[in-house]
């Protein structure tokens, strides 16, 4: 059985009737199978779960981690990104990511890196148009939630010091020039550059977490640290809020990963199981390290560890079994801890909410390790996988996307800085972004 056999990937489906190794595009798959109400119901739920991860999950998680005077700014940023990305996704984003018109496998042309515009404004798509066994408009909405959360993750890197106008402009431009090409290259199907190389990224280790994490690091370096960092302590203002956001993210992640099977099936069930295992193991790993180093575990550490485990299992969730999830959880819990503490202190950058340390490093870990644990001999579902080759493909894709994202993010941040100015002035930062950017406060006593 080939590495793609039995695997469903983002609007593509391999069917026995098609013969081994032949992928059917959405219209052909729909004709062969028709609408499946079970699959449709599950992806409807998954879409709601993934949107729930950004609003309110990520908003509360980030909002609790900043100081009181900046809480509303984080909530506003998550809400505005949700709205802006939705409009861009409708206008042209979905089409550039998933329109496969004119694509040919084995030919390295423009469409290997970006889709076309034939589906702009959902042209030709109605409630009866199918993508695999679900309505294509539902696939549109499911993928939209991924496009929303990715730039929303980045805002944690420059929290408490960026102009709202600059944040919104950068997020929109970054979606167009960073997210859409990478999304297409990985999930664009046959003819897309990284898909044709055989890259494994089930639910977004490369597309979501590496891109967001690397962009966050570039932004933190370019914008500079918050006033007083690192001499002044800047503890979270409300860990109850952060815990609530963590719980929402954990539950929502089942839609993120298990929903990426694009059906109510065994692949979805295993993806859900390994997602929960990895998050649990990473939580315990981070707690154990804190316990040994500081004499007691913290809620903040446990919450951060769980997100690291969730990020790391994301690319692997549709390919690995419980043994792989166990190792990925341990690796992410320990290595993300080092990245968010020792590495950050060593290099002195102010990634305010550890986006790079958790999502960038976690996504990288999972992207590489799936090349090992997808093998049938190690509990995965890819049979006699050529592990050496797959590891090389995974590593090359992760590094290549990281370099591309870093370059694009740097250029966009420079352009936005020249046009709008990235950073608020000193007095606005001291006053807080809630007042200086929005003229409101969540704490009126």
Question: Can you put this structure into words, describing what you see?
Answer:
It contains 15 helices and 4 strands. By secondary structure, the chain is an all-alpha fold. The protein has one domain (about 45-435): Ammonium transporter fold. The strands form 2 sheets. Strands 1-2 form a two-stranded antiparallel ribbon. Strands 3-4 form a two-stranded antiparallel sheet. Helix 9 (about 265-295) crosses helix 11 and helix 10 (about 300-315) packs across helix 11. The protein is globular. The N and C termini lie far apart (about 65 Å).
Describe the protein's topology:
Layout: E1 13-14, E2 23-24, H1 26-33, H2 37-65, H3 71-98, E3 130-131, E4 134-135, H4 136-154, H5 164-187, H6 193-197, H7 205-223, H8 239-258, H9 266-294, H10 299-313, H11 322-347, H12 355-373, H13 387-419, H14 426-431, H15 433-438
Helix pairs in contact: 2-3, 2-4, 2-8, 3-4, 3-5, 4-5, 4-7, 5-7, 5-13, 7-12, 7-13, 8-9, 8-10, 9-10, 9-11, 10-11, 10-12, 11-12, 12-13
Distance between the termini: 66 Å
Strand content: under 5%
Q: Enumerate how many helices there are, as a single number.
A: 15
Which parts are unreliable, with pLDDT below 50 for 5 consecutive residues or more? Answer: 1-32
Number of strands: 4
Summarize the structure.
The protein is an all-alpha fold.
Labels describing this entry:
mainly alpha; single chain; Ammonium transporter fold; 445 residues; globular; two-stranded antiparallel sheet; disordered N terminus; 4 strands; two-stranded antiparallel ribbon
């Amino acid at each position: 059985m080939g590495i793609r056999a039995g695997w469903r990937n983002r609007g593509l489906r391999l069917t026995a009737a098609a013969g081994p190794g032949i992928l059917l595009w959405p219209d052909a798959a729909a004709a062969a199978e028709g609408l499946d109400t079970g699959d449709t119901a599950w992806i409807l739920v998954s879409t709601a779960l993934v949107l729930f991860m950004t609003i309110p999950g990520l908003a509360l998680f980030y909002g609790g981690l900043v100081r009181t005077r900046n809480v509303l700014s984080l909530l506003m940023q998550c809400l505005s990104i949700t709205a802006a990305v939705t409009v861009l996704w409708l206008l042209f984003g979905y089409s550039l990511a998933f329109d496969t018109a004119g694509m040919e496998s084995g030919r390295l042309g423009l469409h290997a890196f970006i889709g076309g515009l034939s589906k702009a404004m959902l042209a030709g798509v109605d409630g009866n148009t199918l993508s695999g066994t679900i309505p294509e408009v539902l696939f549109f909405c499911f993928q939209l939630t991924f496009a929303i959360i990715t730039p929303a993750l980045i805002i944690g890197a420059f929290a408490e010091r960026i102009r709202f106008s600059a944040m919104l402009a950068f997020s929109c431009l970054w979606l167009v020039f960073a997210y859409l090409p990478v999304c297409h290259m990985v999930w664009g199907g046959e003819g897309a550059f990284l898909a044709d190389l055989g890259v494994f990224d089930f639910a977004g280790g490369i597309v979501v977490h590496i891109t967001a994490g690397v962009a966050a690091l570039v932004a933190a370096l370019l914008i500079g640290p918050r006033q007083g960092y690192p001499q002044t302590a800047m503890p979270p203002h409300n860990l109850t809020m952060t815990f609530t956001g963590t719980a929402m993210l954990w539950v929502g992640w089942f839609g993120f990963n298990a929903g990426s099977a694009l059906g109510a099936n065994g692949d979805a069930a295993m993806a859900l199981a390994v997602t929960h295992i990895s998050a649990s193991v990473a939580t315990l790993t981070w707690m154990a390290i804190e316990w040994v180093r500081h004499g007691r575990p913290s809620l903040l550490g446990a919450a951060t560890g769980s997100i690291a485990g969730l990020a790391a299992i994301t690319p692997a969730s549709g390919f690995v079994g419980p043994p792989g999830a166990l190792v990925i959880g341990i690796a992410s819990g320990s290595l993300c801890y080092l990245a968010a503490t020792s590495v950050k202190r060593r290099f002195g950058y102010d990634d305010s909410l550890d986006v790079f340390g958790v999502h960038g490093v976690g996504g990288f870990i999972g992207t590489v390790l799936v090349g090992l644990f997808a093998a049938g001999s190690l509990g995965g579902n890819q049979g006699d996988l050529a592990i050496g080759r797959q590891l090389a493909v995974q590593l090359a894709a992760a590094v290549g996307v990281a370099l591309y994202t870093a370059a694009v993010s740097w250029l966009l941040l420079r352009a936005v800085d020249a046009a709008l100015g990235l950073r608020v002035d000193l007095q606005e930062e001291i006053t807080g972004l809630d007042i200086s950017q929005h003229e409101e406060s969540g704490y009126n006593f």
